[in-house]
Amino acid sequence: MLVHTPVRTTDSIQQIPLNLRFWLVTVFFTSWVRASNVGGPCHTTQYSVKGMYLRGHTFKNVRVGPHDSCYFKCTEEVTCQSYNFVIGQNICELNNRTKEARPEDFLPDETRYYMRRLTNRGIFRNLICSSREWQEKGTELSSQLTPNPFVPTIPPRGGHPPHSNLVRGKLTSPTSNPAGDGAYVPLGSIPELPAESCSEIIASEGGAIKYKKYWIHSHGKSGSIEAYCEDGWQKVNGEDPVCFGAKNNKYGSIIITKSGRLRTMKLVHKNGSLRCNSETGPSFWGCTYAPYGKKLSTIITDATKTVVLPPVKDLKGFRASQSHDCGTKKHFYSLNGTSHNSTVLAFQTLSNPLSVSRDEELQIWYGQDLKDCSESGNSGSACVDVYAWYE
Ligand SMILES: *[C@@H]1O[C@H](CO)[C@@H](O)[C@H](O)[C@H]1NC(C)=O
Ligand SMILES: *[C@@H]1O[C@H](CO)[C@@H](O)[C@H](O)[C@H]1NC(C)=O
Ligand SMILES: *[C@@H]1O[C@H](CO)[C@@H](O)[C@H](O)[C@H]1NC(C)=O
Ligand SMILES: *[C@@H]1O[C@H](CO)[C@@H](O)[C@H](O)[C@H]1NC(C)=O
Q1: Which positions fall inside the Apple domain (predicted)?
Q2: Residue 68 contacts by C-beta under 8 Å, 6 or more apart in sequence?
């Protein structure tokens, strides 16, 4: 269990000018001030954690004098997201990740404490809230050390992708911190601080993220790309959607932009539609000919036409007794909540994530075209945006 204790160490604030000292006091006090009313405006998500540290993400060690604070050393570095303070040695280990982004690396160590860099919003809120509570609660604060109840609950990195419709956020360009004014920079928002994946960004930033461009590693630590993230989803195609047809091997080509392990993908319909019969109506994802019912027939394969999504075990063919040109060839599937006119086709999460490499091709196929059956009467094409969810 985490024990949150006041930070009273050689990270001293004794001889600092008054305004700075006030600032420091408020910053550190919020680490152990309990907001007086749960759900009120004084939620504090910023705090230090004694006896814990973040392992393996230190990009710089700085020794501080008795009048220095690690906090300010951290704010001098644009990529600093948090720090470990080594008690007794006066060493600040500046980290380029937070414990929210890497919960698996947040470990006990009695000789250290951990503190996250405040967001701008956090600074403002904490100043107001902590000065108020300082007045209200005065000296009784130090005895009230409980785990912070206001830490946002964050899905584990690579957690279950929400199979929800896209809610388009406003497009904004990446923020940068050229002024070096000490403002906190979110993970992935500048080229110097690429994130591992969109899901790491949500974990680090503590919640949903809007449709926006971020810097993401594209192949291990080498190279990074700018990609749209929305929640944990990373958009794979560029500005142009990917189109696929219903016959004559008109698959849509997806070029993977990031190496990694794919948990699943989703397709977002942009325009067009497909028909499997001149007499039946159009569909975004399948065939509206009655025997198919609400079954879908949009399939993702690798470059050798091996089915990747949905998992091949979910693919069905017709019963042997049912007469159809595709016979028992497995080329359609059910997906709960998704039908012929759904805007979003979000596949189920793979139980074994799929390893993909940057520049590898995946293909989007119409089932009958993939299996080369019953396709002569087919027509139309559909265009989609492609999103991937990495571990
Ligand atoms: C983050 O720090 C690690 C060392 O812990 C370093 O290998 C890595 O390159 C740093 N990443 C960035 C983006 O600064
Ligand atoms: C989708 O829209 C684009 C741009 O408006 C157009 O070029 C393309 O032909 C359309 N595709 C289909 C299948 O409707
Ligand atoms: C579809 O959803 C229903 C209700 O949520 C559930 O009972 C059923 O098992 C689901 N089917 C599949 C194939 O996931
Ligand atoms: C989708 O199709 C159903 C019938 O299958 C229809 O009731 C519904 O209005 C359609 N929705 C849209 C947005 O076209």
Answers
A1: 42-119
A2: none
Judge whether 159 and 53 are in contact, CB under 8 Å: no
> Which residues make beta-bridge pairs with 391?
none
Q: What pLDDT, on a 0 to 100 scale, did the predictor assign at position 271?
A: 97
Instruction: State how beta strands 298-302 and 307-309 pair.
Output: antiparallel
Answer for the pair 122, 23: CB distance below 8 angstroms, yes or no: no
CA distance 300 to 311: 10
CA distances from 212 to 134, 144, 183, 224, 265 (A): 38, 40, 20, 16, 18
Q: How many domains does the chain have?
A: 3
pTM for the full predicted model: 0.75
Asked if residue 372 belongs to a domain, the reply is: yes
Identify which of 55, 57, 98, 185 to mutate to test ligand 1's pocket (most ligand atoms within 8 A of the CB): 57
Q: Does residue 314 have a pLDDT over 90?
A: yes
In a domain, 252, yes or no: yes
**Same domain (yes/no): 223, 363:** no
φ/ψ (deg, to 5) at 239:
-65, -35
Question: How far is the centre of ligand 2, averaged over its atoms, from the C-alpha of 269 (Å)?
Answer: 11
340 C-alpha to center of ligand 4: Å?
Answer: 8
Mean pLDDT for 124-153 is 34
